[in-house]
Amino acid sequence: MLNRDHQLDTEALLPGRSTEAGATRRTALQAALGLGYAAAAAPVMAQTAIATSAEGLVAGQVSYEVDGFKVPAYRAAPAGKTGLPVVLVIQEIFGVHEYIADVCRRFAKAGYLAIAPDLYARQGNAASYTEVSKLMAELVSKVPDGQVMGDLDGAVKWAAANGGDAARVGVTGFCWGGRITWLYAAHGPVKAGVAWYGRLVGQPTDLTPKHPVEIAPILKAPVLGLYGEKDTGIPLDTVDKMKSALASGSAAAKVSEFVVYPDAPHAFHADYRPSYRKEAAEDGYKRALAWFKTHGVV
User: Which of 61, 115, 261, 298 sits 20 to 30 Å CA-CA off 76?
Assistant: First the structure.
């Protein structure tokens, strides 16, 4: 796993809907979203990967338009329900693959409309890469923060028009998505965020002009940061810098919190990789649900 810069609307796949045209379209959508497991994320630990059933859910690929571009996304929600709390699920550097889709289904089982947009879609397909270095250089590094904020705004609008409650939105993300979670909590219409091991500091660039430590004082929503003590890419002194920045910030910044798990490495929630730490991952998920409840998402 990285230790540096971590850096369509269809019906759910329901039984009996297996026409040849439909199957072809679903295959194309799955390829666009990178469902399956990203080759660059190998080795995959299939024996430990969590598989959450879609029973009782509406789950599958959708799309929505932002600035003339169709953003593909995976969404899962309790079937037949409306007025649902919404959670934006933000991908790792490896894109929206089966692990991220499964996280959406987990939140849907907890009563949320969960949506994970493919935030690299304009730049390319993360699933086509087999080397992390090329994925970073050729795709991830070319994704502007401004584009990401707009695509997340579009996801909130889509959710509000498709059974979600736009007044009750949370955001959570992993690795690359952890950083984005902090940024979106300073930008978007969310009540709370949960950032899993997203980097907090960095050099500004034209595409990534600010990092979490710089936007901490202006957070609009409180964020729970879930980090690993043994994450060699996110030194604990950067967590301390972030805590200091939050302490002198907005009301939302002041109530933001960190949990640092002893002996946990980067990507300890990623149950399909050797970095997975079951106890920390399960505790973090429970804390995420409680955090959203405490801050009015549910």
Answer: 261
Catalytic annotation present for 97: no
SS3 of residue 217 by DSSP = helix
* Among 102, 145, 175, 271, the one annotated catalytic: 175
Which of 97, 266, 269, 295 is the catalytic position?
A: 266
Domains parsed from the chain with CATH numbers: 20-294 (3.40.50.1820)
E runs forming strands in 113-243 = 113-117, 164-174, 192-196, 223-228
Is-catalytic flag, 231?
Answer: yes
Please name the residue that has the structure tokens 């397909």: 125
Tens-place pLDDT, residues 147-174: 999 999 999 999 999 999 999 999 999 9
Name the active-site residue from 102, 145, 231, 271.
231
Residues 172-199 have pLDDT tens digits of 999 999 999 999 999 989 999 999 999 9
pTM: 0.89
